[in-house]
DNA sequence: CCGATCTATAAGTATATGCTTATGGGTTGT
DNA sequence: ACAACCCATAAGCATATACTTATAGATCGG
């Protein structure tokens, strides 16, 4: 609609799909080749590759080719746009309700 | 795909659309009736109402009828699922890279 | 070298999504 | 009461999206 950075868009959109979130979350347990990721879910390997491509384009994961496998792992910095987006309204939250302050304590106790 | 709470899904999906993020962000400036929100963007009033309905269903905004207007405002607690989702992996972030710690300092300085 | 394995990409399809115009219900001012 | 206003909802449409199967390129084991 207007002033939204492309990367921010990509991150939000990548995480909007439950399958991609599940894949992303599963990579939290550690890097894994595509075949292993595929085995964890009930969708086809191409579907997984397509999701990974989108996560990668959003900067949320990276893939490293080793032999005939491609190992994917999470890129924590990829979440920065998401965190920045929330942080952008910190002043508002605290001024109006102070609710976020409590929530943030859960994050950084 | 699997174990994703419905509300979490709704929040992520609601924020995935740039128009809805823009509307949500504009409500950060304060409550506003639908007509005012509509005036801020270049989409029709029904489109705005549909976006607001989805944001409301996700718990991100609430609407209050006053006269013939409906004033919408942000519901900060609505972002909790988003923050919880990030926080859920805090241990992972800090254990592996410690990157998120720095990011969090931006949030709660 | 050859068959098997691993992954990405192409092509096709069904559904979801975001928008539009049309309309109806509710509220206000005259 | 009536016209104007505000909003939500219905219906329709064009595009986006998430999946499938088919396939080709790359790599490994025997």
From TrEMBL, chains A, B:
<keyword id="KW-0804">Transcription</keyword>
<dbReference type="InterPro" id="IPR036388">
    <property type="entry name" value="WH-like_DNA-bd_sf"/>
</dbReference>
<dbReference type="GO" id="GO:0003677">
    <property type="term" value="F:DNA binding"/>
</dbReference>
<dbReference type="GO" id="GO:0003700">
    <property type="term" value="F:DNA-binding transcription factor activity"/>
</dbReference>
<feature type="domain" description="HTH arsR-type">
    <location>
        <begin position="1"/>
        <end position="94"/>
    </location>
</feature>
<protein>
    <submittedName>
        <fullName>Winged helix-turn-helix transcriptional regulator</fullName>
    </submittedName>
</protein>
<dbReference type="Pfam" id="PF01022">
    <property type="entry name" value="HTH_5"/>
</dbReference>
<dbReference type="InterPro" id="IPR001845">
    <property type="entry name" value="HTH_ArsR_DNA-bd_dom"/>
</dbReference>
<dbReference type="InterPro" id="IPR036390">
    <property type="entry name" value="WH_DNA-bd_sf"/>
</dbReference>
<keyword id="KW-0238">DNA-binding</keyword>
<keyword id="KW-0805">Transcription regulation</keyword>
<dbReference type="InterPro" id="IPR011991">
    <property type="entry name" value="ArsR-like_HTH"/>
</dbReference>
<dbReference type="InterPro" id="IPR051081">
    <property type="entry name" value="HTH_MetalResp_TranReg"/>
</dbReference>
């Amino acid at each position: 609609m207007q002033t939204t950075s492309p990367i921010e868009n990509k991150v939000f959109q990548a995480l909007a799909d439950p399958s991609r979130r599940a894949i992303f979350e599963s990579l939290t347990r550690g890097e894994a080749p595509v075949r292993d990721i595929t085995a964890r879910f009930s969708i086809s390997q191409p579907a997984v590759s397509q999701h990974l491509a989108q996560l990668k384009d959003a900067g949320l994961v990276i893939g490293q080719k080793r032999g005939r496998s491609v190992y994917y792992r999470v890129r924590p910095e990829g979440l920065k746009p998401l965190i920045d987006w929330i942080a952008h309204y910190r002043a508002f939250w605290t001024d109006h309700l102070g609710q976020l302050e409590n929530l943030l304590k859960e994050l950084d106790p």
